[in-house]
Amino acid sequence: MPFIIAHPLADTLRSALRAWGLAWRRLAARAGSACPACGGAARGGRLCEACAQDVLNGVLDPEVLRCERCALRLPAAALPRDLPAGVCLCVDCLLHPPAFSQAVAAFDYEPPFDSLIQRYKGEHRYVMAGALAHLLYCAWMAADGDAPAVQALVPIPASRTSLRRRGFNPAGELAAALGAQARLPVLRTALHRRREDGRRQASLGRRERESAVLGLYACRRSLSGLHVGLVDDVMTTGSTVDAAARVLLQAGAARVTVLVAARTPAVPQRD
Fold first, then answer.
1. Higher pLDDT, 65 or 28
2. Does the pLDDT at position 131 exceed 80?
3. Domain 99-198+205-263 carries which CATH code?
4. Planar angle of CA 69, 73, 76, nearest 5 degrees
5. Is the pLDDT score of 267 beyond 80?
């Protein structure tokens, strides 16, 4: 009969390392630094207060319509007709509801703040994960309302090609920084990729993205009853997070909320 031997020393060591990591992040958050956006005075590698407010104004402005499901910015003319009062959905979410319940983004992926993502990923500045996580956390808290609390964070796994090119997983580092701020566990290895095709998502159109992510992800563990926060750096068509959310729900998750640093505005579809 199989049995498990407890290792209290290992558990104590893991707890101590987690506590040390949190203490280090809190200390680093007080240190002076240059704002990644304007170069002015800031703290802990985050944006200065003025730039952070400029970023968040874009997603918190009550005059700006957004799909309440996928966070896509909507012109008033793009709203489907005959929606119930108080409901704001894009056509895609109305006709083809995604697996996730809600998406929260810190800003739209367009100038001037798209440069934050470009520097984070293109210049391999993974230390900017803290700045992006802080913006996302603020937007998340503002948008959360009465939604059930997220209990764990799961990052979208990077491809091997991406890991070799960048040296880190942008979604993974963002999830780690967000988890530290929100004091939530990060299940880094819960999702894994079942195949590698070498294609970059940024080079694919909507239909190609949808095809590329079919059966792409699998879940390594049971998520029974958990409200999961699915973390990615940029959400474009939503195909990636939708495919991942379906896998998390199949693994027992009760609900999936998508948390992304940036949301790409609507783009023309390509065949």
1. 65
2. yes
3. 3.40.50
4. 100
5. no
